[in-house]
Amino acid sequence: MSKRVLMIVTSNDRLGDTGKTTGLWAEELAAPYYALRDAGVEVEVLSPAGGPVPIDPGSLKPRGENDAVVERFLADQALQALLKSVPQVSEVKDAAGYDAVFFPGGHGTMWDLPNDAGVQRVVEQAWAAGRIVASVCHGAAGLVSAKRADGKPIVFGRKVNSFTDAEEAAVGLSAAMPFLLETRLRELGGDFQGGPDWQPFAVVDGRLITGQNPQSSALVAGHVLDALGVEAAAHQAA
């Protein structure tokens, strides 16, 4: 029986009060989506509000100039059609029916994932059922509200990673954020492990798998496959 992964993406396309557009970072969905699918894993994509998934325009270059996995994403008519209307996270009855929950990032997550009751419930259900919970970059915003059965945050006492405060400062968006993700994870009792800016870096602490930035997307996906006991495809489809 195929493994099943619930991939939760942002519905938000507003970068706070800046007047700028944001959303999902394309590579952070594309790299894990294809790594999982190519390995025979079923992937379902949902969002807090449902409907169309906003893509951060900063994550896309003109066609032919993107990394191969993003070019594949842009050319994938089936996936593009799916992203025009995804279900709401609240429609998930029991996340224990999935083997993992995965949060891609993009700055949009910082506004909708932390405050969504459906997201919190799904993470808590998955964690209580012994499932894998993973995120990359700002996707860790999906972890900050979830609690364990003992009432403590699921990141409490665990090694965890996300887009760092230093990287946020480097892109000039610290003041625009509702909170700084690294700082929040530390405040929640997480043992934050940070890597060098813009380099692939991920942390595995049992069933919790977290990665730092877009460059870490494939790395996190590989760790998720390992945790699922699924062998990665030798060659991803073109």
What does this structure look like?
This protein has a single domain, classed as Rossmann fold. Helix content is 29%, strand content 13%. It contains 8 helices and 8 strands. A 6-stranded mixed sheet has the order 2-1-3-4-8-7, with helices on both faces. Strands 5-6 form a two-stranded parallel sheet. Helix 1 links the parallel strand 1 and strand 2. Helix 1 packs across helix 2. The longest helix has 13 residues. It is globular and about 50 Å long.
Question: What would a concise description of this structure say?
Answer:
Helix content is 29%, strand content 13%. The protein is of the alpha/beta class.
List keywords for this structure.
238 residues; alpha/beta; Rossmann fold; 6-stranded mixed sheet; two-stranded parallel ribbon; 8 helices; 8 strands; globular
Outline the fold blueprint.
Blueprint: E1 4-8, H1 26-38, E2 42-46, H2 68-75, H3 77-82, E3 100-103, H4 109-112, H5 117-128, E4 132-136, E5 159-160, H6 165-170, H7 181-187, E6 191-192, E7 202-205, E8 208-211, H8 217-228
Parallel strand pairs: 1-2, 1-3, 3-4, 4-8, 5-6
Antiparallel strand pairs: 7-8
Helix pairs in contact: 1-2, 1-8
Q: What is the CATH class?
A: Alpha Beta
Strand order of the largest sheet: 2-1-3-4-8-7
CATH superfamily annotation? Class I glutamine amidotransferase (GATase) domain
How much helical structure, as a percent, in the residues? 25-40%
SSE succession: EHEHHEHHEEHHEEEH
Oligomeric status: single chain
Rg value: 16 Å
Q: Which structural class best describes the helix and strand composition? A: alpha/beta
- What separation lies between the terminal Cα atoms? 26 Å
Number of contiguous helices: 8
Largest sheet: 6 strands, mixed
Strand % is 5-15%
Could you say what the CATH topology is called? Answer: Rossmann fold
Number of strands: 8
Low-confidence stretches: none
* Count of folded domains: 1
